């Protein structure tokens, strides 16, 4: 391994940027933005005027978006298949499935439902349509919502009319973006429950682009939620001019039935198929995962307690030991590590506390770091998630790195807490350029050419890396040798390594920042007070 400027030169896994397709997707995203907002405004207004909660409303509405997508793809395939039937053999479901298109009986077509008289029982008709789709497309058996009778006729007709305005010539990716937009909006409105199945798209995209699953064969997410990691992986592969459905095999686990259904619908709306199973990953390995996967991506639940450690004894998925039962973070981390094959890569979201956790978790982290598989750690600031305002950390593992003598001993740390775009008072995100900039820090570190698919990326690179090559940047990034990590008590907290950049700040900016921090402190204090009251009420009930 060559050493350049005191650090190893990364030679594996280089990918050329896909400029043409990247620009096409940017234009597409701009074109559908108004459609997304308009459709959501209509759907949300209808919900507000119904007697349904957001949680009751979300899955059926997503089912109608799914039906519109499936119907347009079916019409497109039908036009291609017309005339191919003969007197001896008629075109049937198998012909559509061969084109990776769902077969729709006449009663399940979108226009058929739209044409029903307003006096009809439209809820029953839509529920029956969903049953028919499942009957003719076995991969969706038991997946689609079939409880539309809860809706008023007027609401359902308004939703059908609203979704009918989606242009039929939109690509499957655009429909998928609309579907994802609604997932995110429902997650935001549902609060904590919504976050159980949805990871914000910018977080997912950064993970996918950091591990670059273009050309991989098997992808696992053992806490897959609504399947966003799979969708972004397929999109990344398509941007590199490969057919995602032919190039990646999707495997997932989720413990909640409704979330498994959402994941399968999300895959179907993107023209993908996968093996998504209902299972509790702590105890069940339904995919025989050990050493089997090229890529693992996940956003697991944080800080779960009361896992039954007795059921984990002798489970080979936990090679570094079983942590204390009060926190399952290091069960998840070991699950991800042990599922990778000898060159596999993983990217996942993790609680900040895991980077410096002590006791049994420290011992597990030490063993993991000593395998040399920890590739990069990225700190993410607060307000990126709909469920909690607290910051998180992204971990990246690369088992292929462990065999490269000089490279193996180094880990890249990135502190991205000051990189964000404020969406509203309570939520932040990354722009495409900010995501690409963070990915390019890693690309420069590996001595690859940076990608410049988005406006603003070059300006960020020029600001921080003016000579076009990687260098440690105070307060942003630093590559660290394993000996220093050991000196720091095996910490994986980027803040310990990248340092703090001190900047002068004018009075106006200072006052604005103080106001932001005060607001955030007050919100957290209110949440703490609410939780204290809940606990006190609970204790009083116990003693009464």
What does this protein structure show overall?
Helix 2 (54-81) packs parallel to helix 12 (257-269). This protein is globular. By secondary structure, it is an alpha/beta fold. Residues 1-30 have low confidence and may be disordered. Helix content is 47%, strand content 12%. The strands form three sheets. It has a nine-stranded mixed β-sheet with strand order 5-4-3-6-7-9-8-10-13. A two-stranded antiparallel sheet has the order 1-2. It has a two-stranded antiparallel ribbon with strand order 11-12. The protein is built from 20 helices and 13 strands.
Write the layout of secondary structure elements.
Layout: E1 3-4, E2 7-8, H1 19-48, H2 54-81, H3 93-98, H4 110-114, H5 122-136, H6 153-164, H7 172-190, H8 192-195, H9 201-211, E3 218-221, H10 228-239, H11 244-247, E4 249-254, H12 257-269, E5 275-278, E6 293-298, H13 329-339, E7 340-351, H14 359-370, E8 374-380, E9 392-398, H15 405-408, E10 410-415, E11 421-424, E12 427-429, H16 432-445, H17 457-464, E13 477-481, H18 482-487, H19 495-498, H20 507-543
Helix pairs in contact: 1-6, 1-7, 2-6, 2-7, 2-12, 9-10, 9-16, 16-17
